[in-house]
Specification:
The protein has one helix spanning 2-25; strands spanning 32-42, 47-52, 55-60, 66-69, 72-73, 84-91, 97-105. It is α+β, with helices and mostly antiparallel strands and 107 residues long. Strand 4 (66-69) and strand 5 form a beta hairpin. The longest helix has 24 residues, at 2-25. The model has no long low-confidence stretch (mean pLDDT 83).
């Protein structure tokens, strides 16, 4: 029994130099903050257009997007033009901005 444990410990220690560089190469997708006013909302494609000063940004959302309004859980149906919005976004596999979190606020 001790030999089996010793063999397992040796195997784990031997694999550590192989696994560590692989873990270091993985980079989580970076998130960025986008905020402004809701300039438009397309329910069919779940895309929100955000007006930030002179820049318009299109942000997509999906079923995993966490949405809050007045500090309570909300749905996509509560997105209205003119509301202030703060989004945490990342790029998806199609190079679109995908919202991971949306916070809706009064103007």
């Amino acid at each position: 029994m001790k030999r089996v444990r010793l063999a397992l410990v040796g195997l784990c220690l031997g694999a550590a130099p192989i696994v560590a560089p692989l873990a270091a190469q993985y980079k989580a997708p970076k998130q960025q903050k986008v905020e402004g006013l809701v300039a438009g909302f397309d329910k069919a494609s779940s895309t929100i257009t955000i007006q930030e000063k002179n820049l318009r940004t299109r942000v997509s959302c999906d079923s995993r997007t966490h949405i809050t309004f007045r500090n309570t859980t909300a749905t996509v149906n509560e997105v209205k033009e003119g509301l202030r919005i703060v989004c945490m976004v990342r790029s998806n596999d199609r190079n679109q901005m995908l919202a991971t979190r949306i916070d809706l606020r009064e103007k």
